[in-house]
Design a protein that fits this description.
Largest sheet of chain A: 5 strands, mixed
Number of strands of chain A: 20
Oligomer: homodimer
CATH superfamily of chain A: L-arginine/glycine Amidinotransferase, Chain A
CATH topology of chain A: L-arginine/glycine Amidinotransferase, Chain A
Distance between the termini of chain A: 20 Å
CATH architecture of chain A: 5-stranded Propeller
């Protein structure tokens, strides 16, 4: 049922991703103007992600009617497949944000979704079905639902579950999201609907990230007061200045409980560019972001998913894959780190964190 | 997961509808060649049925993407709405048959569905989406699934949950269902997949029933060894001979445990005919059964749903409504009997039992 209140008023908060999950939600990629070769390589990659996560927690994949049987056949039997229609397959961004209270009750927040910018720089049109996903997940799970009156994607926020949120100005203050709201008004909404006391504003996200700099591609919480930040040591890379600027903010900020922050650098892979062949495999549609050969993709190891007892992270076929995996193994000593070849997901404009959404226990 | 065995082998059986339920499944009517005026009056009637049943047990309604928001708005908030695609909305017939074992485990049987006769007298074409409903319900409920290799609709069978099945020759032996199978071979499949010892064969169903005489419109179990049979006292009604023939069978048969059967007559309403106006409201489509003015509809009070603590029965605006309700109140002294104006469901070719499917507890 729809609740006309806010999570904060009712004693609910969004937990950290590192807290215990009931499971994970995903969607099945289909659109040929996002995913090359009729989305067939992406479907294989998504299946591998779902399969890896299902080793740690229950996974549900939403699939449109036309692809139901193919998805059911490609996904392992322990992954649940439910019918859902959508415009694209980024569950993190169009899906719900789950919140919990002290009595173990669960509800969800249904944000407005406008495909990363609506008619002003959004990535495709229309986005009507994406905007119903959170409501449909609420129905399937019989979860009560808050409808938040602001545009927000799940990938643009990370929380420590203890009152602190990190986000980026590049995305949340972009006039193509909530143009009528000041920073303070936006903060009030975030505090009310996520259950927060403090918001830490980073400046920009990964270079050339088509989401307008989602935080989940550049920085995340490992646990309260400990973060990972995407990093390059190459001062000629335009990413260098972006990461350095964010590091400086994190080194001077404190979290909601007054703690200083411990920041770990996670190396970036060498720049990943769209090939001629990859570009040719994508349908060209008016209103959809084109995929041009030579364009730099927003590749980052920060875009991993934290599961119960596991980390599922992207690999890019780069020597840094193993280096990044080692960093995560040290940061998450109690979790098994699994790498998945993620180039086909990256070609669509995001990565493993972008295509997943945790449901807390 | 799909199980390559049979319920009987694994110790599972289909319980009687009067046993305890976990809930009820329905689908949302849409097709304008079945339902008049764009299915709007039928949607109202289905909503009233869902609403009535939801007073007694949880209800889930499967809705196609296009009608999701309208269904969500028309149905009461306690009814769960999930996305499902289908060709029409007869959950009893295209949906699963749930089976349980002695340890309270639940599984389901996924029958072949061919729209009541396939290309040889079936009611519409195609039926591909209907045939996936049972699999999709298995996914949503995370229930293991048997795939039965025979054509069968849920409305063509009733069980006492103690080894006895009633069905009709008119339907199950119709060459448009399983033409390659003898009566004995068919019995073996029914016994294996429903968990039975004995099948009682009635002859024909309600006069002019487009399902080829589904048993659920003419006869049902009130509890083991006690049945209700649709009845008319008018010897000039073609229904008279049909009901009398079935009564004679029931009076001489015994159930799987050797008990004689107690049969209660449930009066039929006066013949219900399609009006000129009702006929005009239905789209005419090649391959779909036409709805001609003056055609007699298969109206029967036997087509009720047994819920936990409740009976939801059809009313036809006939003086017999109250008489039939009184009979059911006497037969079900521990359940509240609720009547729903069901003419709009009947116009589509079935009634309340045909549009529902219980999930046992």
């Amino acid at each position: 049922m729809k609740i006309d209140s806010t999570p904060k008023k009712d004693g609910f908060r969004m937990p950290g991703e590192f807290e215990r999950h009931a499971g994970c939600w995903m969607l099945w990629p289909i659109r040929p103007d996002t995913w090359r070769l009729g989305a067939k390589p992406a479907q294989k990659a998504f299946s591998e992600v779902a399969s890896a996560i299902s080793r740690f927690e229950p996974v549900t994949v939403g699939v449109c009617a036309e692809q139901f049987q193919n998805a059911r056949n490609m996904l392992p039997p322990q992954v649940r497949v439910v019918e859902l229609s959508y415009n694209d397959s980024w569950m993190r961004d169009c899906g719900p944000t789950f919140v919990i209270d002290g009595n173990g009750r669960i509800r969800l927040v249904d944000w407005e979704f406008n495909a990363w910018g609506g008619l002003d720089g959004g990535l495709y049109f229309p986005w009507d079905l994406d905007n119903l996903i959170a409501m449909k997940v609420a129905e399937i799970t019989r979860t009560d639902r808050y409808k938040a009156p602001i545009v927000l994607e799940g990938g643009s926020i990370h929380t420590d579950g203890q009152g602190t949120l990190i986000t980026t100005e590049e995305c949340l203050l972009n006039p193509n999201r909530n143009p009528g709201l000041s920073r303070e008004e936006l903060e009030d909404y975030l505090k009310a609907y996520i259950g927060l006391e403090k918001i830490i504003w980073l400046k920009r996200g990964i270079y050339n990230d088509e989401t307008n700099g989602h935080v989940d591609n550049i920085c995340c919480f490992i646990k309260p007061s400990v973060l990972a930040l995407a990093w390059t040591d190459d001062p000629k890379d335009p990413q260098y200045e972006i990461s350095a600027e964010n590091l400086e903010i994190l080194q001077t900020e404190k979290d909601a409980r007054g703690r200083t922050l411990e920041v770990h650098k996670l190396p970036l892979p060498a720049p990943v560019l769209i090939s001629e062949e990859e570009s040719r495999g994508v349908d060209i549609i008016e209103g959809t972001l084109p995929r041009n050969p030579g364009d730099r993709l927003a590749a980052s190891y920060v875009n991993f998913y934290i599961a119960n007892g596991g980390i599922v992270m992207p690999f890019f076929g780069d020597p840094k894959d193993i280096q990044a995996k080692t960093v995560l193994e040290e940061l998450f000593p109690d979790r098994e780190v699994v790498g998945i070849s993620a180039r086909e997901i990256l070609l669509g404009g995001g990565n493993i964190h972008c295509i997943t959404q945790q449901q807390p226990a």
